[in-house]
Design goal:
By secondary structure, the chain is an alpha+beta fold. The chain has one domain: HIT-like (HIT family, subunit A, 2-Layer Sandwich). Helices cover 25% and strands 22% of the residues. It contains six helices and 15 strands. Helix 1 crosses helix 4 and helix 4 crosses helix 6.
Amino acid sequence: MPELRKDPIIGRWIIISAERGKRPTDFIIEKNSVRGGFCPLCPGNENTTPPEVLSYSNTADRPSNKPGWEIRVVPNKYPALIIEGDLNKEGEGLYDKMNGIGAHEVIIETPDHNETFTHLPPARMIRVFRAYRDRITDLGKDPRFSYVMIFKNYGAAAGASLEHSHSQLIALPILPRMITSELEGSLSYYSYKERCIFCDIIRQEINQKIRLVAQNELFIAIAPYAPRSPFEMWILPKKHSSSYISMDENHFVALSEIFSECMLRLDKCIPNVPYNFVLHSAPLRSDSLSHYHWHFEIMPKLTMIAGFEWGSGFYINPIPPEEAARYLRDAEI
């Protein structure tokens, strides 16, 4: 029988349609066609992107905007929001509007055009996560911005327009509704129980183990109780922390290890699956929050959002998270 499951944080309802019972091999993944041709993100083409705002290389004397980089961050050539100007908030009758001020950047994760995020070597993946921290920290100095959204689209079905491995960030002058809902839901739980709901979730998942995908000393990866997508995973620090940028170097190493393990397990279950991942963290310049817990959400693109989903706000998931977690745990990597 199908189940209705409620997300304990934001109250979103999910339909687990178990009678549709899918195995990993039941999902049809369109083969990625390699378009080839010119790539603006490859070494040697640095002059075709806006000037870099951050880069890491193995040599101290590398000139800016030249080959020799390991990780490179550049403004998006076609930004969703622009960094120049003032917000100029104003009303138009009962409506509110402001200028589209923000920052939109591309984190080029590797100089190797054929290297995927899933197969990044450990040192490079650590640098990617460090670049996220450094850019959030820098953009947080701008008083116009309230939040920096880090995200990755892999595969055309997940919204990727370039083949070269990259992720993106968008600095926003307002809080995204999803983050606001998480903050409100977790604060409501904390006000009632005086505990962080994410910490309670971590304790329960470690104890039950049925939705546990992987763990190490500092991080845990789980299939959430009410997943929107088949094989959705969350990666959370075991110790309470509300802000991603508070991590030390040991956490970067442990995060790269568990993230790599999760991506390899997912790829083993469903090879070359398109996916998105998103970083959820506390708003910029906020104090440490006792009720909120930063985390990554990894969402494979395996189902379609159609009329029922748009009209109801419900998601239909054809595989229970307990089964998805079992497949992921059993994958040989």
